[in-house]
Design brief:
alpha/beta; 14 strands; 15 helices; seven-stranded mixed beta sheet
Length: 415
């Protein structure tokens, strides 16, 4: 079978709840041509408008899919709220209508001077107004796995990055897309609610369990948002109650081996995973993924035509150039590490304990022999055994002296 490596070198994002072409992640312009977007919108009127405007949106390559996604197929009601971005197939919870949130946003991003781009605007969201239902629209829920089988998803555009913001039904959407996500996705960003702002909403635990069951690791939150039941004037505000945010799940790189047809496919997916991890600030994990990706690439003289074509297609993508530069920069840096443990030691002439950072040394033959002696002498030296054994890993000669001292002292005491 002929593989279109140019298509596979793209990063495909599926976003559910895409009103206004909004995404939970920012894509720098230099990578814009590397991405394709499949956008799902449940509101039929909004989806129709987006389909007309897609060619002129800030997303270079996007397809609008007019479906409400859920766990299974069936009827539902879309509750369109006064702030349409808060619409959901779940009713808003009136218990939170007295809450507000202070929102900071930047309308100047990409415009003006760097100083102007850094300026923020602030406004208050009053949930009693924003969550007021203004329309009820009957919709049919569809599972993404079903849409994919029916050909309703663009061919060759399975998700590398799956993002979902559906106001409380995110886990249902993920469950309906489980087969597609398990076979293709490398990262998930899902909105999660910590307070029950919608009736019958899912929980963070539901999302994390879905991730664990499908080969993903919870990597943290990309952002969280506070709300408060009391609207104070400026100057009297601090932290509110953390109510919702976006959770990031990254694919376990080792799990990719089960879904990749050959080493070339593994290299592409592991490199994409590295890019996505780095994009969300998880650079350590990105470097691990690059190590795994590079381990399967044959030497230049041993590459067949398939490898040559795959690497050529990747080389034309800016995201791939970025991860290659990231890998090169990491290799060029000296291997410096902070100490592994903090150990309490008393400095001569200093009253009370002082903390020194002590780096563990690889055990040599002397320290290995010392630990054997410590095992033999443990009963003799009693409570000091553990401290001396730990010291043996770091300063074996000092540990040896202490061990001998304690052993001789114990023997003398018994006499």
């Amino acid at each position: 079978m002929t593989v279109d490596w140019n298509a596979r070198a793209r990063i495909v994002q599926h976003h559910v709840g895409a009103r206004g072409f909004s995404l939970p992640n920012h894509i720098p312009g230099v990578f814009a041509l590397d991405f394709s977007h499949v956008l799902y919108e449940a509101d039929p009127a909004c989806a129709a408008e987006m389909a007309v405007e897609a060619a002129n949106s800030h997303l270079r390559d996007c397809t609008v899919v007019p479906y409400a996604l859920g766990a299974v197929r069936g009827p539902a009601t879309l509750y369109v709220t006064a702030n349409a971005y808060a619409s959901s197939t779940l009713r808003p919870n009136p218990a939170f209508f007295d809450y507000y949130a202070e929102v900071r946003y930047n309308v100047r991003y990409g415009k003006g001077t760097p100083a102007e781009e850094m300026q923020e605007d602030v406004y208050d969201v009053l949930y009693g107004g924003d969550l007021r239902v203004v329309r009820e629209v009957p919709v049919e829920l569809r599972a993404l796995d079903e849409l994919a089988r029916d050909g309703a998803v663009p061919a060759g555009a399975m998700p590398d990055l799956f993002t979902v913001d559906t106001q409380g039904t995110e886990t249902d959407v993920l469950r309906g897309a489980a087969g597609t996500i398990r076979a293709h996705a490398l990262a998930i960003v899902g909105e999660v609610d910590f307070l029950p702002m919608y009736l019958g909403q899912g929980s963070l635990g539901d999302l994390l369990e879905f991730g664990r069951a499908n080969g993903f690791v919870f990597a943290g939150f990309t952002e969280t948002h506070d709300i408060s039941p009391h609207r104070s004037p400026v100057g009297q505000r601090a932290r509110g109650f953390t109510a919702f945010g976006d959770a990031l799940l990254l694919r376990d790189v080792e799990s990719l081996r089960a879904i990749c047809a050959d080493p070339r496919d593994f290299h592409v997916k592991a490199a994409k995973l590295a890019f996505l991890a780095a994009s969300f600030g998880r650079v350590d994990y990105a470097l691990l993924c690059l190590t795994r990706a590079d381990a399967v690439v044959p030497d230049a003289g041993a590459r067949d035509a398939g490898w040559t074509e795959a690497l050529r297609a990747l080389g034309a993508r800016n995201w791939y150039a970025f991860v290659r530069d990231l890998s090169s920069a990491a290799r060029a840096m000296p291997d410096l590490y902070p100490p592994i443990e903090r150990q309490e030691e008393r400095d001569p002439g200093v009253d009370g304990p002082t903390w020194r950072s002590v780096e563990l040394q690889p055990p040599d033959r002397g320290s290995i022999r010392l630990r054997r002696w410590l095992s033999i002498l443990e009963r003799a030296i009693g409570g000091e055994a553990r401290r001396v054994r730990e010291l043996a890993l770091r300063r074996p000669h000092v540990a040896a002296a202490k061990a001998i001292y304690y052993a001789l002292f114990a023997i003398a005491e018994r006499r």
